[in-house]
Amino acid sequence: METDKILVPPDNADSAKSVIVMKNTFSDHGNEIDEIISSKLPRIVRWGTVYFFFMLLLIGIICWFIEYPDIVVASAKLNSINAAKEIITKTDGKIVKILVKENEKVAAGQILGYMESTAKPQSVLQIHSQVDSMITLIEENKTDEIIKYFPTSTYSFEKGKENILGELQSSYQAFIQAFILFKDYLSKGFFFKKKRMLLTDMQNIVKLHGILIDQKKLMQKDLSLSNETFNANESLAKDKVISSFDYRNEESKLIAKQLSLPQINASIVSNESLQNEKKKEINELENQIIVEKNTFIQALLTMKSQIQGWETKYLLKAPVSGTVSFSGFFQENQEMKAGQPLFYVQPVNTSCFVEMLVSQYNFGKVKQGQEVLLKFQAYPSEQYGSVVGKIDYINTIPTDSGYLAKVILPNGLITNFKNPLLYRNGLVAQADIITEKMRLLERFYYNIAKQFKR
After folding, report:
1. Segments in the chain below pLDDT 70
2. Nearest to residue 313, comparing CAs of 176, 121, 46, 80?
3. What is the largest CA-CA distance in the chain?
4. DSSP 47
5. Rounded to an integer, what distance in angstroms lies between the CA atom of residue 341 and that of residue 328?
6. DSSP state for residue 148 in the 8-state scheme
């Protein structure tokens, strides 16, 4: 390749040599350099700064719309105002009968099972029903009708008969004895018959009193006429019209009629005394009937109380209406211990809430009315979502583990994924308390500003 010559002054001979060498170098690689210089750069290189700026702007916009609240984490446990009711055994023994199945609907007072007893539950329940009916009749003042609950063929107590009432047999015998005594005081009993006879006697005595009063009135009228006749005869005797003998006869007649009036008064007094005696006898009999009635009522209530005690001990009853569930796996004729839970009854109208325990760390941020996200361990939040709650109350007195707070559930046990959760008393959850709603961009700014303040 031919080299271009450049004339330079002698003093700069070394410089000239360098220029000639550089010229030769450019001449050797001229085509490659020309390509690099003349080629157009890619758009991403030429607009990279602009793209980067818009990317930062887009990230900032996204961070503005993304919420990243300030959260305080606490532990929580599900509870309810009307929680599931536990049914436990009151005595050691076998459970001889189970009358319900898992998840069956039951009514309040329904019998779920029987514990082992020497009494027949059906007989005890029948007597309980009769006792309640008798109490109702007495309250309605229909005491005479209770005798229909005591037919002579019911529950014989002769020796060799089956002991169908078991533990209640002696109590029922005492109750029957009280009724036998009281039966004579009912409307068809001896004492009520005696009372009716006394009342009849009283009516006759009152009638006799009326007759005596009428006789007295007639005697008083006759005496008045006799007085007028005697006065007239007395005047005639003074005028010598009648003899003294006739005058004495008229005076004797007057005295005889005057003597009959005290006799009728004595009969009236005697009649009134007889009335008082009959009234006293009737009142004593009525008081005796009342005493015997109260004695029987007391025996009736005692029998009811003893039956209730037996039922509490040997019958397993649902305390409320709801759904029954078994506390474990057991079967009929299985031996049970006193105090062992057998059933749970979940009421229909259960109102759920959450007991939350907030530690002292960041407790100052927690306030009433703040939103809480509840993530139950039994229902993974990734699959079921979180239940939204609201702090209703915070206890001002701390416990060893922190401050107790109550969280209400406005939407119930429905998650933010619209999944309903099945209530189970005592479910444990993680509670995320949203103390302050912040955006992701605000969070970056908050952290940066915090660093500069330091």
Report:
1. 1-41, 43-46, 63-64, 66-68, 151-163, 187-190, 239, 438-454
2. 121
3. 221
4. T
5. 9
6. G
Query: What are the structure tokens assigned to 83, written together?
Result: 């929680």
Q: Are 143 and 137 in contact (CB under 8 A)?
A: yes
Tokens of residue 129, six digits: 């029903």
Binning the chain into helix, strand and coil, the percentages to the nearest 5 are: 50, 20, 30
Beta strands (DSSP E) in 329-384 are: 334-336, 341-347, 352-358, 371-376
Is residue 33 packed enough to be buried (19+ CB in 10 Å), middle (13-18) or exposed (0-12)? exposed
- Asked if residues 142 and 123 have their Cβ atoms less than 8 Å apart, the reply is no
Spell out a b/e string for 143-168, using b for 16 or more CB atoms within 10 Å of the CB, else e.
beebbeeeeeeebeeeeeeeebbebb
Looking up tokens 């009421």 gives 347
Q: Could you give phi then psi for residue 322, rounded to 5 degrees?
A: 165, -155
Closest to 395 in 3D by CA, of 404, 382, 385: 404
Distance CA(28)–CA(268), nearest Å, equals 171
Residue 70 belongs to what H/E stretch?
A: strand 70-80
- Helices and strands, counts by H and E, the chain: 10, 14
Give Cα 411 distance to the centre of its chain. 24
Task: Provide the token pair at 147.
Answer: 């005798």
Strand order in 315-317's β-sheet? 315-317, 111-115, 93-98, 334-336
CB 264 within 8 A of CB 201: no
Helices (H), 66-163: 121-139
* Contacts for 254 with CB less than 8 Å, ≥ 6 apart: 223, 226, 227, 229, 230
Alpha-carbon distance of 344 to 324, in angstroms, equals: 6
Estimate the crossing angle of helix 244-314 against helix 121-139, to 10 degrees.
150
R_g of the chain computed on alpha carbons: 56
The confidence score (pLDDT) of residue 408 equals 92
What is the Cα 385 distance to its own chain's centre?
A: 33
- SS3 label, residue 32: helix
Report the relative pairing of strands 93-98 and 334-336 from DSSP bridges. antiparallel
What pLDDT does 428 receive?
92
